[in-house]
From TrEMBL:
Protein's name according to its UniProt entry: Acyl dehydratase
Pfam family, one: MC_hydratase
Annotated source species: Paractinoplanes atraurantiacus
GO molecular function annotation: lyase activity
Top-level taxon of the source organism: Bacteria
PANTHER family: BETA-METHYLMALYL-COA DEHYDRATASE (PTHR43664:SF1), MONOAMINE OXIDASE-RELATED (PTHR43664)
Length: 152
């Protein structure tokens, strides 16, 4: 099975998302420039060497995007819409060359009052690096199709 419909979720279930993603310097530079982030700590090695980290720092919004993507197969493959990301925290930095993994726990679920073909699912997601250090956490809420109601 790829993805979950509303009926497939259970409060308390934890999913370790199956894929990991190593972040390259090209990924970081392109994403930073694409999003018009002018902080040189993401794309200027000389500048980054003079910061407390001493090396290129991965753009935090790239980390959000990658961890969201890693969770799609389990959380939002059959989503109608993302409703929000709350309480985003970044307890540790991400650097070029880090490999990011993710896991999510279902916090709550309820049927949609306005869309009878869908339900609302909230999850706590954590992204962590190859050493097991948490690099990002959040609560995410999605509107997920019920079985038999999504596009074919």
């Amino acid at each position: 099975m790829v993805g979950r419909f509303y009926e497939d979720f259970t409060v308390g279930d934890t999913y370790r998302h199956p894929l990991g993603r190593t972040i390259s310097e090209t990924d970081n530079t392109w994403f930073t420039l694409l999003t018009m982030n002018t902080n040189q700590s993401h794309f200027n090695v000389d500048y980054a060497a003079k910061t407390p980290y001493g090396k290129l720092l991965v753009n935090s919004t790239l980390t959000v995007a990658i961890v969201t993507g890693l969770s799609v197969v389990d959380i939002s493959q059959h989503a109608f819409a993302n409703l929000g990301w709350d309480e985003i925290r970044m307890p540790n930095p991400v650097f070029v060359g880090d490999t990011i993994y993710a896991r999510s726990t279902v916090l709550s679920m309820r049927e949609s009052e306005s869309r009878p073909y869908a339900g609302i699912v909230s999850c706590a997601t954590t992204g962590f690096n190859q050493d097991g250090a948490d690099v990002i956490t959040w609560k995410r809420t999605v509107l997920v199709y019920k079985r038999g109601h999504g596009p074919a």
